[in-house]
Fold these 4 entries.
Entry 1:
Amino acid sequence: MLRPITGYHTDDADDWVAELSCGHGQHVRHKPPFLSRPWVLTAEGRDGMLGTELDCVRCDRLEMPDGLSAYKRTAEFDESTIPGGLRKNHATKAGVWGVIHVISGQLRYRTDGPGGRDLLLDPETPGIIPPEALHHVEPDGPVRFFVEFHKKSA
């Protein structure tokens, strides 16, 4: 999943890590001949790459970043009360992760775009929703669920 660079920091080994809009970090080392990223060596070079998109494999794996806190949740829905907006493609805001919690039954969770997924959620299998990723849900028989929203702690 492509995510823009929003900032940088160095790790314990003084290697540069790009901070992505999703909350994940990704190393951006300059280690020729294997990795050629001379732009990372200067502040001007790094600043020039802000907004550039990198492929975030952790978003692709539906892994939530560390440091998030739940701040809101929906009402509980069942197969007859799922809002129409959840049944068609929609997305969370930038920086907002969602977790679909199935209380009983099964819920089909589909993500759109490259690497799209079709997952069947149940009480033991929550659905992780990355920020700004198109997705929708469909009941698979009787179901009860809610969605919890997470963002970086202030």
Entry 2:
Amino acid sequence: MSAEGFKIMLVDDHAVVREGYRSLLQKQRGLTVVAEAADGAESYRLYKSARPDLVIMDLSMSGIGGIEAIKRIRQWDPDARILVFTMHFSAVHARQAIRAGARGYVTKSSPPEVLLAAVSDILQGRIAFSPDIDHELAQDWAQEWANGGASPFDRLTSREFEILRLLLMGKSTEQVAETLHVSPKTVANTRYQIRDKLGVHSDIELVRLALRQGLLDGDEPS
């Protein structure tokens, strides 16, 4: 913690959204927004220079998304504290975010006090979930226990999940490769690995499974 208080970085591709919760946060004593990023790649670059105490990260952004950004930031700084703030209301997204290294997950439909409470919890070393996601995770766990198995999306690595996210947005293999700075062949091979892990045989089946699992909620098109 600096002499001025806790430093916050905001990551969201909507400037109006950032303005709204920047205003909310800076009304709180001891919180200062020191950096803002519009995508995952920018958030990684800014994190290294701003060294915030907490990152508030959206998941669905143009270019590199939140889960990939979380993974990169945590690889560079294992102690990084990251709170997901997103429209995605699904246990799949929450579990992937936590596996990537997030310390909390709050949906944008939550009241402002829920976001502020999560910020306080994480800055004090605790984990934090908004009540709706807490309930969703509990239901998901109960369903897994009843069915004797985890969600098929838990089989995906963070990189595979990011490639899946971009493909579900309608990105071509070449566009995904350019975004992630990998070869088109790597993306094509990963696409087949994703299908194999999820037990589907076509892109249509993949989209249907994503819909059933709630991966296409929020502002992400298919």
Entry 3:
Amino acid sequence: MPSTDDHAIAQSLSSIRDYIRWGATEFARESVFLGHGTATPLDEAAALVLHSVQQPYNLAESYLDCTLTLTEREHIIQLIRRRITERKPSAYLTHEAIFAGLSFYVDERVLVPRSPIAELIEERFEPWVDESQVFNILDLCTGSGCIAIACAYAFPEAAVDAVDLSEDALAVAAINVEKHQMQEQVTLHQSDLFKALAEKPYDIIVSNPPYVSLSEWESLPPEFHQEPAMGFKGGENGLDLVIKILAHAGDYLADNGILVVEVGSSAETLQATFPNLPFYWLDFERGGDGVFLLRAEQVREFHSQFESAL
């Protein structure tokens, strides 16, 4: 049953605009942490409200003054309250996340998609690859499958292999492969990075692996602790999986291939670990950092350093 206060809110607020404004105020007042795809309390509230009434996130402003039914109002109020009290990312409440302009199913078995790599995929990794020469793509630590599926859209002629160690994550990825009807183009593999894969040349290897150090993990806001720890923890310094990827990627890259890896907050540690490596740190117009790119010849040139760091 709605509380007395919530009943009064449902009676006094009527439009989509009203509930976006009210939700934004509540999120700001309760210091809800934002870090899963929205940057402001207003954006967070808009995402929840619009999803709850099955409207697109770019809904024309003229529709924001439409009157909601009492049932819709009560549902929105419940979602806003849950977001505050449970500290769950909104994507877990709506079971939807937008990545590279595409809708993905998500739940607590996977991290919420939010990587800046989306922007790179939308640009088809230009100018780093020749779009017409991309035939095989590998997505390591695929999680929800968002990177692999977005790559499949960007390169419709390419075969995409998507790898994860987690059975739970692969189950969610399978939902998204079916949702986007990518069964013929995207193949899911349960593997500890490259271990279960046959050696073949990939034109693009892309990964958003666990890269958070243990000390940083412990200090993250509660919203992050609603996500699977396996998707965050990268060992004592955050680089355990990153270094394994660097050490073995050379065996799986085509001669003109590229390796793109997100290391986020561990970027400084990685650069300090390999001070003479020419990591190219990518810039993103929509924000985000900590993503490096190496060409195949660079990965192979520094192979011995990566091996010695394992």
Entry 4:
Amino acid sequence: MAYGGRVTINGSGSSSDAVPTGVGRTALMVAAMRAAETRRADRLFDDPYAADFLQASGGDPFGSENAGGGEGFADIWANFANYAPIRTRFFDEYLREATRGIRQVVIVAAGLDTRAFRLGWAADVTVYELDSAEVLGFKQRVLDGCGAKPEGRRVAVAVDLREEWGSALVAAGFDAGEPSAWLVEGLVSYLTPEQNDRLLGAISGLAVSGSRISVEYLHVDAVALMGRAMSVAAGEDVESMWSGCGIGEASAVWLDRFGWDSEAFDAFERSIAYGRELPPPGDTPIDRFTAAARNGFVIARRR
């Protein structure tokens, strides 16, 4: 039975006309990168809706117009624009492989992710998207305007990931007795080590043996470099946004504590495999952050 077009939003309400603000605004930065990648003849993935999110938000607030306003911002955008397509392609491949046997996918802090529409899911795969009501409301309005239909079944669950959210996911239909595949992309740098522990603990409590997870791992030191680089580019102190955030131990140690066997992947090596070699880093704070982030792709299996 085909599930195309079946979309549910659970959780507290929010105006679907609102453009994401605060941390939710970073979803637009990712959409800008994905739109730019989609325009390339040698693109590593195709996101047909990324440009629509930007248009609905009033344009790209992170692209060429602002990049030209200061050398620091241009450097940050160039580094992110080089790295992010590698990240997206890596996680696309992880989910395609994981769903060869797993029928439940949970995308944590899904933002404006459109994998439910573009990865060729089987009809019996359910994709759960966790994010704020504000982000999911805006996203749904744009997707409805495009006539977008998910390839499997998509269930959007509005939650605050800093609070308890597992019960909302189960209420939305997630079966904690069946294996699941989880994706945590672009989130750990906004949470403290304690909050990241709670997040992984909640996931682990819902993931039975044989479940999979992939994480963009960022140590607290790498996140501190990101904050410093952003402060240099902005000409003001924005470092406090990321103060004390990230994960405080090696990825293998962190995941092992919660019952996962993990393998780490280097983004630079992946970029070579994808035919899009990343440029070698220099010695600016921006470059050092980028170099640190390149080691942060992790895939793990629940014991």
